[in-house]
Structures are given as C-alpha cells and as structure tokens.
C-alpha cells in the first residue's frame, strides 16, 4: 500500500511536531532560573548507563554461546569497544571501531 503525497506531508509534519515537542518541553518545564528537581537530576545520572546495559543485553539476546563461533565475534567486539573507550574516551571511535571489528570477525569467523 502506497501513501499519497498529502499523507506523506501530514506524516512529515507530525514527525517534525513530535521531535520539536520533545526538544522544547524540557526548556519550558525547567527554565534556567529554576532549579532542576533532585529526582530529575538522579534520573539524568542513572538512566544513561541503564539504557546502555539494556542495549547490550538486547544485542546479545540471540547469541548462542554453545554452538558455532561460541559468541566469539560479539565478545571480542565488546572487549574492543570497552578498550577503545577506556583508551580514547571517544564514543564515536568506540562504536565505529567495535562495529568494524564485528563485521570483519563475522566475515572470517562466521
């Protein structure tokens, strides 16, 4: 089923409005002259590591450590990401390096 031009325009406008709302609401709720609640500060410090841990679990959910390559590409890539990030403290380098290593390992190890 294809969408008409009007439907595409409506979808783009709805997505743009959704992005704008999510970007502007924090500035409306927490202006510069108002102190941020302790709960929000706590969530801001706790949620990023929790989300990363959730993503790691999600990415490894279908890895079979008992057959095939025994999860070797995944384990080596995770170690490379951790090592690169510890060494350079650059998220983009860590993610790119780990992804490239993973693709190479998949090609050669399977």
UniProtKB/TrEMBL annotation:
The chain crosses the membrane at residues 6-30, 42-60, 66-84, 91-109. It holds the Pfam family AzlD. Keywords: Membrane, Transmembrane, Transmembrane helix. It comes from the Bacteria. This is AzlD domain-containing protein.
């Amino acid at each position: 089923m294809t969408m008409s031009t009007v439907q595409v325009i409506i979808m783009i406008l709805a997505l743009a409005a959704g992005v704008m709302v999510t970007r502007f609401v924090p500035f409306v709720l927490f202006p510069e002259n108002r102190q941020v609640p302790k709960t929000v500060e706590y969530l801001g410090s706790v949620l990023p590591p929790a989300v990363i841990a959730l993503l790691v679990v999600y990415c490894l959910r279908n890895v079979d450590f008992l057959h095939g390559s025994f999860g070797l590409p995944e384990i080596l890539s995770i170690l490379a990401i951790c090592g690169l990030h510890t060494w350079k403290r650059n998220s983009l380098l860590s993610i790119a390096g780990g992804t490239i290593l993973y693709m190479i390992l998949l090609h050669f190890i399977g």
